[in-house]
């Protein structure tokens, strides 16, 4: 364990004794720890603002509080610059196979819809806009300015992004989670929880739905079921095209996020391999999108 992280955690004004600290695996924009103090357990997330990824920890705190008030996420116990302490939920982290299962997918759709409809009602203070196409443009400028080895691809990728943006409207706006990886869903045996609000902000619901599908390899049939279940109406050709455009945008944003992380992150993670995997998936999704577009 990082001695500085351990010292930071032990110095928090929360503990009744000497807390037990253990590393939680999985964080790729911050570091996470389980802390047991007496009979109670907590999650401590350490991470400062990450301007290159447009991450504001104040936004994360506000979104986490709103999500808890909406009944979809654990409670915020404490925060200070660089530190967020949450109630620990004894639960199993889902994997993509879980998400693809019929039983889980139906529960997840209900949870995501609740997030979209209710979390924003409880958000207090200035709220973020998470607009994938702006983020893609910003990432491309960062990569070009830093002389990234991926710079030669940027002109083509930006042209594709602009086509997607023109194809994905008109846009509905909801308060989105914007990072629906399987690992951000927890099952405590009675209910599901949605965690990690680093990228939360107002967005089209199609971004979360497309990200959910692409992150967890849903089949085409499952994607159509997802849209009809979420919107509670038959799927139209127009919605299918708009959805495919936003699904592509979610994959391209994730690709460029990883390319930027190759340059800036100090977390032990194979970003280069992750970049190439997501780039390949983006190209395949874009080819499918072009077939669906009139």
Automatic annotation (TrEMBL):
UniProt key word tRNA processing: no
UniProt xrefs under Pfam families: Choline_kinase (PF01633)
Gene Ontology terms describing biological process: phosphatidylethanolamine biosynthetic process
Record bears the keyword Cell membrane: no
Keywords recorded for this protein, A-Z: Kinase, Transferase
GO cellular component: cytoplasm
GO MF term list: ethanolamine kinase activity
Protein name: Thiamine kinase-like enzyme
Organism of derivation: Mycoplana azooxidifex
Source organism phylogeny: Bacteria, Pseudomonadati, Pseudomonadota, Alphaproteobacteria, Hyphomicrobiales
């Amino acid at each position: 364990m990082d001695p500085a992280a351990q010292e930071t955690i032990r110095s928090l004004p929360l503990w009744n004794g000497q807390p037990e600290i253990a590393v939680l695996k999985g964080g790729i924009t911050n570091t996470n720890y389980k802390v047991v103090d007496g009979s109670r357990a907590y999650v401590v997330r350490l991470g400062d603002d990450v301007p290159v990824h447009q991450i504001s920890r104040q936004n994360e705190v506000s979104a986490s509080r709103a999500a808890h008030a909406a009944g979809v996420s654990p409670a915020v116990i404490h925060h200070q610059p660089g530190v967020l302490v949450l109630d620990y939920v004894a639960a199993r982290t889902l994997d993509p196979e879980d998400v693809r299962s019929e039983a889980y997918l139906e529960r997840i759709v209900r949870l995501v819809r609740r997030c979209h409809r209710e979390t924003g009602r409880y958000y207090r203070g200035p709220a973020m806009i998470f607009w994938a196409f702006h983020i893609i443009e910003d990432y491309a400028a960062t990569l070009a300015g830093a002389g990234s080895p991926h710079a030669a691809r940027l002109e083509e990728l930006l042209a594709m992004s602009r086509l997607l943006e023109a194809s994905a409207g008109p846009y509905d706006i909801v308060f989105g989670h914007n990072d629906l990886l399987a690992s951000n869903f927890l099952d405590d045996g009675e209910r599901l929880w949605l965690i990690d609000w680093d990228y939360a902000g107002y967005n089209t619901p199609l971004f979360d739905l497309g990200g959910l599908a692409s992150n967890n390899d849903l089949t085409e049939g499952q994607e159509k079921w997802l849209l009809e279940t979420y919107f509670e109406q038959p799927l139209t050709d127009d919605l299918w095209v708009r959805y495919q455009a936003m699904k592509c945008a979610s994959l391209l944003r994730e690709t460029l996020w990883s390319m930027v992380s190759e340059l800036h992150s100090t977390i032990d993670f194979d970003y280069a391999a992750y970049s190439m995997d997501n780039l390949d998936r983006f190209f395949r999704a874009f080819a499918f999108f072009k077939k669906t577009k009139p």
